[in-house]
Design a protein that fits this description.
Blueprint: H1 2-7, H2 15-25, H3 38-57, H4 59-63, H5 72-97, H6 103-111, H7 129-149, H8 155-183, H9 187-206, H10 218-223, H11 231-249, E1 259-261, E2 266-268, H12 274-284, H13 288-301, H14 303-323
Antiparallel strand pairs: 1-2
Helix pairs in contact: 3-5, 5-8, 7-8, 7-9, 7-11
Length: 324
């Protein structure tokens, strides 16, 4: 059904496509029942679907620490944060469904590897300081990417982003608070915080996607306002925001080339290891298999609920027909 739907749209130089682009250029929002080019629909399904999957898979590395949080307060906060991520996934699946794809289709595409989720969630969370680094850096990078997406051209995506961003800001502050506590703690705690920064720095830079010269989708996505900035623009903003925060924490960003550049008004920094990024995308990161196995298990374990619900739905529909 998904493939059919994508094929059934008009050609891109049609009058509909021209007036569609004019609406985008004028800053109008596109709503689900409006005409849209096949490529626009397909790109949105890919991006929103991947984003939704990232929120859901993203619960795993943090969920891993709920039972080991150091205090009851930290446990309650982490639990709430992980639940928020589930909510973000649900808003985003709903936004994707308005484009005509079902949540089951999206899930199956994730489970059999046809759809991606963010590379960052293929890295392990080894210590409690990683809960700080994930909140500070991963949610920090996510906000940098998602704040501009509040102005994206597709109405349901834009509205989902407004709600998501409110919660992400709390997540980032919660992560920074853990880092602050650990950086000001015992020497062993400070070493743990530094180690978490060392391991999460480059994977966080990779979250923004390949450098602009290698980005496949940026040009078209920006013309359609599905993306509001290039990958490199957002990565630069993230570095410029995060380096002073690391200084404040008394931690060292693991990049010997890092240097303020007066002329550009930002830091020069080393590119992350793009060979590693593409390996992670191919499924060869440290936790890819574990993450997909966990999602497949959850899907299989939930089969009885889905079967029960559809049997109940069929029974109700049959009863309605009989009563007519
Ligand atoms: N990981 O042409 P490009 C969160 C793929 S969740 C994996 O630049 P695009 C959180 C890309 O898909 C954060 N794949 O692509 C949750 C494409 O491959 P395909 C998630 C990546 O789409 C829980 C290829 O590389 N945020 O914050 O224009 C706890 C070429 O790239 C990645 C979003 O999803 C990557 N990092 O730009 C805590 C935001 N980067 O699809 C936190 C919405 C690139 O052709 N998404 N690829 O096979 C976006 O803004 C854009 O999709 C991206 C990539 C900037 C990520």
């Amino acid at each position: 059904m998904y493939a059919q739907m994508v094929k059934s749209e008009a050609a891109d130089d049609s009058p509909e496509a021209i007036s569609f682009q004019a609406r985008i250029d004028a800053g109008e929002k596109i709503e689900p029942k409006d005409w849209m080019p096949a490529g626009y629909r397909k790109t949105l399904i890919r991006q929103i679907g991947q984003h939704a999957h990232s929120e859901i898979v993203g619960q795993l590395p943090e969920g891993n620490w709920i039972t080991r949080a150091p205090t009851l307060e930290r446990k309650a906060i982490l639990l709430a944060k992980v639940q928020d991520e589930a909510g973000h996934g649900l808003y985003l699946y709903c936004a994707a469904e308005t484009l005509g794809v079902s949540r089951d289709d999206l899930t199956e595409m994730l489970l059999d590897g046809r759809m991606k989720y963010s590379s960052i969630f293929n890295y392990p969370t080894l210590t409690w300081a990683d809960m700080g680094a994930v909140g500070w850096l991963v949610d920090g990078a996510a906000i940098m990417n998602q704040v501009p997406l509040q102005r994206t051209s597709y109405g349901p995506y834009s509205r989902a982003m407004i709600r998501v961003c409110k919660e992400e800001s709390f997540h980032q502050r919660k992560g920074f608070d853990i880092m602050r506590k650990m950086s000001n703690g015992t020497p062993a705690q400070k070493r743990m915080a530094q180690d978490a920064l060392n391991r999460f720095w480059e994977p966080s830079l990779m979250m923004f996607g390949p450098s602009d010269k290698d980005s496949v989708h940026s040009a078209q996505s920006m013309a359609w306002k599905i993306k509001m900035n290039t990958n490199d623009e957002l990565r630069q903003k993230f570095v410029d925001q995060t380096v002073p925060q690391a200084d404040y924490l008394g931690l060292t960003v693991p990049d010997e080339t890092l240097k303020w550049n007066d002329e550009k008004g930002g830091y020069d920094f080393a590119e992350p290891d793009w060979a590693e990024f593409y390996e992670v995308l191919k499924g060869n990161g440290p936790c890819n298999r574990e993450r997909l196995a966990a999602r497949n298990k959850a899907w299989d374990d939930g089969a009885w609920v889905r079967d029960g619900l559809s049997a109940y739905g069929q029974k109700r529909a049959a009863r309605k027909v009989a009563a007519q």
